[in-house]
């Protein structure tokens, strides 16, 4: 906590990290960024740098949901905290904990960022134009948090030049989180760093009364799928553009 106060806001920390890494970031479609809304930012995920790139590109401090084990590893725990991240609970309580904490942040008019691909995309880094299936917790958040003027904003992080290196055996991370199935794999955990990246802002969707009616009626599964699929498709199109 003292470290966070010394370094400044998450946005200031993010700017410092991007500068330190020497990443050249280009931002497109900035006119789509909501100005007077509570916002859930949804993005693809392949690097520890992604929360920082989102903040620098959107020019906004974000509260980013991150994996449980990141709060268990010394040094990493401090790093994610100064970036404004909030680690999720252990698997049994993960969904309810995420909904509770993220709803509180949105009610206080803070912006929340989520990576619906989860941790798997960090462990087995996909090609820059590809994504893994989306988990749909963020869509439930949008529809369970009755926040006035709430928007979901899909954002694509397109890696133009990057370096991916193995850093630690996955099984070694079981010391910090023995509940994560990914840590049973024999591979090494990679780390991706960007030399050049494009950040492309998608078209936002504002959560309207008809979304809530469908969610609390007979169309809950469909409206959750629609929002999740829209974000994934929008990000997918932008990734193709951003990686050209």
From TrEMBL:
Keywords: Acyltransferase, Transferase. CDD domains: LPLAT_AGPAT-like. This is 1-acyl-sn-glycerol-3-phosphate acyltransferase. GO terms for molecular function: 1-acylglycerol-3-phosphate O-acyltransferase activity. The keyword Amino-acid biosynthesis does not apply. It comes from the Bacteria. Residues 39-160 form the Phospholipid/glycerol acyltransferase domain. One of its GO terms (biological process) is phosphatidic acid biosynthetic process. InterPro entries: Plipid/glycerol_acylTrfase.
């Amino acid at each position: 906590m003292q470290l966070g106060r010394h370094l400044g806001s998450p946005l200031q920390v993010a700017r410092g990290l991007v500068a330190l890494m020497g990443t050249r970031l280009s931002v497109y479609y900035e006119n789509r960024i909501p100005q007077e809304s509570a916002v859930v930012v949804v993005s693809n995920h392949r690097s520890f740098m992604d929360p920082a790139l989102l903040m620098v590109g959107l020019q906004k401090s974000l509260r980013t949901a991150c994996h449980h084990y990141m709060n268990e590893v010394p040094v990493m725990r401090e790093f994610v905290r100064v970036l404004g991240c909030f680690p999720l609970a252990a698997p049994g309580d993960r969904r309810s904990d995420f909904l509770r904490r993220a709803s509180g942040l949105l009610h206080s008019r803070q912006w929340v960022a989520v990576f619906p691909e989860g941790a798997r995309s960090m462990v087995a880094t996909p090609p820059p134009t590809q994504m893994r299936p989306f988990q749909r917790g963020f869509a439930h958040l949008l529809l369970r948090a009755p926040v006035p003027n709430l928007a979901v904003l899909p954002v694509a992080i397109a890696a133009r030049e990057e370096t991916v290196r193995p850093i630690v055996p996955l099984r070694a991370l079981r010391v910090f989180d023995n509940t994560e199935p990914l840590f049973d794999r024999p591979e090494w955990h990679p780390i991706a760093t960007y030399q050049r990246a494009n950040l492309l802002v998608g078209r936002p969707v504002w959560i309207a009364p008809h979304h809530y009616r469908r969610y609390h009626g007979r169309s809950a599964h469909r409206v959750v799928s629609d929002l999740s699929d829209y974000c994934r498709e929008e990000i997918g199109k932008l990734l193709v553009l951003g990686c050209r």
